[in-house]
Structure formats: structure tokens, C-alpha cells
Predict the 3D structure of the following.
Amino acid sequence: KYNVNNLSDGEKSLIYYIGHGIVNYENLPYIIPTDVKSLTTTKWGKAQTEDKEAIPLSKKELTKLLEECISLEEICTELDNVPSNSLTIFCDAGFDGKLRNGNTLLNFQRNTGKTKGMRLRGNAVIFCAADFTKTVYGFSEKKHGFFTYYLLKTLRENMGNIDYGQLFDEIKDSVSFESSLQGKQQIPTIVVGGKVKDSWQKHKLK
């Protein structure tokens, strides 16, 4: 799925992901690969045409699907094994089973109670389009997701020379405001590893 053998000490790792995700019963996020072979894909097509009446996945189907997906936490743990390597992930994906227009893609049982969520011990910084239990929307006018559009816009305006604290604040404010104007609610979030919890705001891409 991914290989850290070619990384050297002190290198920066940058991952940008746009697509679909899913959470397990503890609300931990998994990326759904485009080449997933699970038979649940036959239900995805029906879900897109039947709007909010998507056929529920059985517990067995959900387990099978998760086996073919990639855990964000596992990615961070693997890359944290590279000494002094910094990891930044920009994740423009929804993990709640919804399409970007709000319709249902995957109908699966989720834990609606309080869960611990994802907790990272390493040096990863993950910019998330929204909380893992919330819907991520498309910015149809700009032919991007809200998150991707304002991420690229902010980086372009600053030529990439902007610290992570300011970058996140600008993305969060812009996405929250623009999505609300369109009758939607999307608030980006950030997840940081324990090693950088007091310093991530000063990090930069350059």
C-alpha cells in the first residue's frame, strides 16, 4: 500500500488525498482505495441513484470493506518510524458515507456515542476537510471541494511561504464562511501528533 524504505532521515513527507473514506465503529478514519474489490461496490451505484435510501451494509460487508481500506492512523505510524521525518497530510475526503452533494454513498452503522477518535503519538499534522463524522461538500462553482479550493488559493497567494497555524486558520475561516453561504456547514479540523502538539503552528511546507 505504501513504502517508507526510500525515505531518509530528516525528509519531509507530504500526502494529498481527495476521494472517499469510511470510519470504523470507533470512528477511526480509513481511506477507500479506487481499486477496492469488495462486493459492496455493487451497492454504491445503487446508493448514488437512490439518494438517501442507500442499501445498508451488513456488519460482514463493512468488515470486508475495512480490510481493503487504508487506516490513516497506520499511515502515520509507519512514517513515524523514519527518524526526524515530518509528515503532513491534506485530506479532502468525507468519512461519513455521504457524497459531496449530500446524498448517501455508503449506509453503514456508526457509533453515535462518545469515542476516543484518532490520537497520534508522532509528528504528523493532518489538515482535514471536516470532522470524520461530518459531510464534506463540493464547491461546484469552482469545480473543487471547498477544502481543496481554499487550500490551493491560500498556498498560491502566499507562494507556499506560510506557517501551518495561519494556513489552517485561513482555510477554516474561508470554508466555514463560503459553505454557510450555500446553506451547508463544513468546518475543517486538524489532527496533530503528540510530538508536535506545541509546535505544529510554526511548521511550513518550504
